[in-house]
Structure to design on (191 residues):
């Protein structure tokens, strides 16, 4: 009987904070949660509310950062590219317009293909795949030696950029809490 009691006491000690020192040093919210637990159910509700608000603020900050990066990538690859072709690569206005139109066809196709891909895998995987492929095609997009390769690079860049972007609306809506889904994604996007 004695060894069983010793094992029980050891198990009780090992599962408590005393066995590892001050656990609140490892988990900053731990001491607050212990105080709330001693305060009763009302204190626990306060801590739960604080934790939910912190989680919502963290999610909001993530969405703002993600949307900022995605906007930089999208507008950075579209808005100035026609000017780049004309001023730095010597394209005529007609050639510039043709390359831009071909690139935008790539954007439409990329959005459709990556939308389908994200339904089969995951939104996050589709976005990351598209963005990694963007980086792979960057040299062909800006430094190709001739107009044909530059056009292929523009098509592929827009295919992958808009492929990643096409998934964003569904992704941010799926991440948003149900109670504020109509407001939360749009507000994060606007910031």
């Amino acid at each position: 009987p004695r060894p069983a009691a010793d094992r029980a006491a050891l198990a009780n000690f090992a599962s408590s904070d005393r066995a590892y020192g001050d656990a609140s040093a490892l988990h900053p919210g731990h001491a607050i949660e212990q105080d709330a637990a001693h305060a009763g159910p009302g204190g626990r509700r306060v801590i739960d509310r604080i934790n939910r608000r912190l989680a919502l603020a963290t999610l909001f900050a993530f969405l703002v950062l993600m949307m900022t990066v995605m906007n930089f990538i999208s507008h950075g690859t579209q808005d100035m590219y026609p000017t780049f072709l004309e001023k730095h690569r010597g394209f005529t206005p007609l050639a510039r317009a043709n390359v831009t139109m071909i690139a935008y066809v790539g954007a439409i196709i990329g959005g459709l293909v990556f939308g389908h891909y994200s339904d089969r895998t995951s939104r996050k995987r589709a976005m990351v795949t598209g963005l990694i492929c963007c980086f792979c095609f960057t040299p062909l997009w800006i430094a190709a030696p001739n107009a044909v390769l530059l056009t292929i690079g523009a098509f592929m860049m827009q295919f992958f950029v808009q492929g990643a972007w096409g998934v964003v609306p569904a992704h941010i809506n799926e991440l948003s809490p149900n109670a504020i889904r109509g407001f939360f994604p749009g507000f994060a996007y606007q910031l």
Observations:
- Residues 9-32 have pLDDT under 50 and may be disordered.
